[in-house]
Design brief:
Elements (H helix, E strand, L loop, with lengths): L2 H14 L1 E4 L5 H16 L14 E4 L4 H7 L2 H9 L6 E2 L2 E7 L6 E4 L17 E7 L10 E3 L40 E3 L6 E5 L4 E3 L8 E9 L14 H4 L19
Antiparallel strand pairs: 1-9, 2-4, 3-11, 4-11, 5-10, 6-9, 6-11, 7-8, 7-10
């Protein structure tokens, strides 16, 4: 990745909360990931709680060689380094998220669990998900949606959302007016297969329903960095972080606190 492109992608991630790196997977590895993810999906029960995500199959790199390879995929590691994100570490696995034909949309949510921690104020990336798309995505088959900037700025929608996934999202009705709100600032984000989407865990995101006749599959891996100021950070540092006690244990919560302003 040339320096100018890396700067552009980094700035987009910091300001908007997401960016995409095209053609990160070779065709050979992409085909292997498709085969292996289909195999795993075909051999597991799909409980009703997977309704909105399509699937929520957590796979460890210790158990599946193909996932181990993806965790250590050099083009992705090189991209993170180029974006100044070299101190991010994988949580050790990936989640297979595969929306079946006819699958409903995924509701608006954010995935940060550290809202009681002053590090929530960080203007730099702190908690990221890396999503590798195994098929081309479109509005028809359930592309990614995002509300840019909501990782750093509270909007009225934040105060109306049920906590994601097992904390409540599994059980919301399909006609919930807030969880499936057609927000005027939302952006549909179609990508090509083999692409990597890097996005903030704090950002409000969702996905369209799948109206096609094929699965829409992606592999999502969580990555995080230490709760410190990055060595390469040249911007302002919030007072809350300068005064943060590193020895305090903060109670986890998905509910945005006063640190989201």
């Amino acid at each position: 990745m040339v320096p100018d492109v890396a700067i552009e992608k980094r700035n987009q991630l910091i300001q908007d909360g997401y960016c995409v790196i095209d053609n990160i997977l070779t065709q050979e590895f992409l085909d292997e990931l498709r085969r292996e993810s289909d195999r795993m999906l075909d051999n597991v029960e799909h409980p009703p709680t997977w309704k909105y995500q399509g699937s929520d199959l957590h796979v460890s790199g210790r158990d599946e060689p193909v996932i181990h390879r993806l965790i250590n995929w050099k083009p992705a590691r090189d991209a993170l380094e180029a974006l100044g994100l070299g101190d991010f570490k994988s949580h050790g696995g990936f989640i297979i998220l595969s929306k079946p034909p006819g699958g409903p949309p995924l509701y608006w949510h954010q995935d940060w669990m550290g809202w009681n921690d002053p590090i929530s104020c960080a203007p730099w990336p702190q908690y990221l998900f890396l999503s590798y798309y195994l098929v081309d995505t479109t509005i028809e088959n359930g592309c990614f949606q995002v509300i840019p900037g909501t990782h750093l700025k509270r909007i009225p929608l934040h105060d109306h959302l049920v906590a994601a996934h097992a904390q409540g999202g599994y059980y919301v009705p399909e006609n919930d007016p807030y969880m499936f709100y057609d927000h005027p600032d939302s952006v549909d984000f179609p990508v090509k297969s083999g692409s990597l989407v890097i996005a903030e865990g704090r950002i409000l995101h969702a996905a369209r329903g799948n109206q096609s006749e094929q699965r829409r599959t992606l592999l999502l891996g969580w990555h995080s960095r230490p709760a410190t100021v990055p060595e390469n950070w040249e911007g302002e540092i919030p007072e809350e972080i300068l005064n943060r006690d590193p020895n305090v244990t903060y109670e986890p919560t998905r509910e945005p606190s006063h640190y989201l302003k």
